[in-house]
């Protein structure tokens, strides 16, 4: 009876080890993780480590903030520990220029949305709020 339990235990260990080896073969490499992060706009990616079945890294988001991210080892899906903007300052300036605003200045991410000051087509100074993901103007007030 004791021998059967030992056999079952060793069989379970062998199956777990084989499953772990199969998972390791399917997992992203560190180079692939870095490439995925950079493709999503992250820069200065460092301290990339595999921990608890996920990749972890420190990086800068598109808006320049330092963030910690976790990456699904098999799908590459990125989970930021903090909400970040998809657009950078240059993206916001370009979107406002394309929408007819000039003299764009004081562009900053404030309370989760982009804020900027500019001159509208009529030459009036305005303060604008933009969606951090799309750059859509979500608020406009005379400055």
From TrEMBL:
Residues 10-81, 89-139 form the PepSY domain. It holds the Pfam family PepSY_2. Residues 1-24 form the signal peptide. Keywords: Signal. It comes from the Bacteria. The keyword DNA repair does not apply. This is PepSY domain-containing protein.
